[in-house]
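Before drawing any conclusions, I looked closely at one protein, both as residues and as discrete backbone shape codes, quoted below without any editing:
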Amino acid sequence: MGVFSSGGVGIDLGSANVTICLENEGIVLREPSYALTLREDTDQLLAVGRDARQMLGRTPKDVALLSPIERGAVGNIELATALITRLSEKALGKRRALEKNRLVVSMSQGCTRVERNALEEAVRTAGARRSALLRSSVAAALGAGVPVEEPRGSLVVSIGGAITEITIVSMNGVAAARTLRTGSTELDEAIIRYIRREKGLVIGQRTAEDLKIDLGSAVRTPSLIRQKVTLRGRDAASGKPATVEITAADVHNAIRPPLQALVENIRDAFENIPAELAEDILPQGLYLTGGGAQLEGLSDRLGEMLGLRVIVDENPQDDVALGLCMVAASDRMMQKFEQSGCLIEI
């Protein structure tokens, strides 16, 4: 018998989504990081995840839609615990789902001591038999197939909903890291502002995210003008229902300023890498992971800007959860990452 008593569970507790991976099954659940409560009594939980997000922009005045995870950190311990326990029960199909399982949860590279304490409390209260926290950048590297055990630096850029982590991993540890408090949700907000300003239409966050996914591109191509959708919303001036046509070029123009800031920050971090580590990275390239890595053309843009090969797997949004589950399933990996300071048992 190993350190734990049953199967491994990895939970990527992200600002935008919670992703759950089970040992021998893979990714079994991905739902938005939302909780629906009574406005005057947030202890009264009405729904979590996808069921809660369906109320985004539609909540009655006595109901509040909250996000317990803010910029990679736990903002509300009780709601974060509820998010973990309820979605785990849904993923495993039983009550008190974690009590016999080994649980490893993601921890932001740049979290403060206070933020880590809040995360520890939320995970501990979730009721797993044994639990641990693993740095999300290391988990992403594992899930993306990065050779983390080798004595050479590997550059991993993980773009999440609210934070971006730029990390060099080597010998099961973190050789250098930088955390940016920006991510893919800033692109959604930029789309909302642009469409209101340029088209006179008020849209919600869900619509903006759908536009980013369907029409968003990090590079400008002639085909952008031909891709278009008809969008319904509220006229910014009259308040009446209105319909406008949105092209992929509009979405590209909307996300260009925050995207430019993001890629310049990544370039700045790369240019400040110690020479010895840069020599390791140049031959193998950069590993791009996280939900933000799905933006069309982003890997091409980064590769051209940095002069590096950019590696993105088929489902980069799953990398963190997959890496967490790999560690939860292996006593040997648990011990190695604990020794390197990347894993904390609770």
In short: The longest strand covers residues 173-180. The chain has a mean pLDDT of 92. Residues 8-138+319-345 form a domain with the Nucleotidyltransferase; domain 5 fold (CATH 3.30.420.40). The chain is about 40% helix and 25% strand.
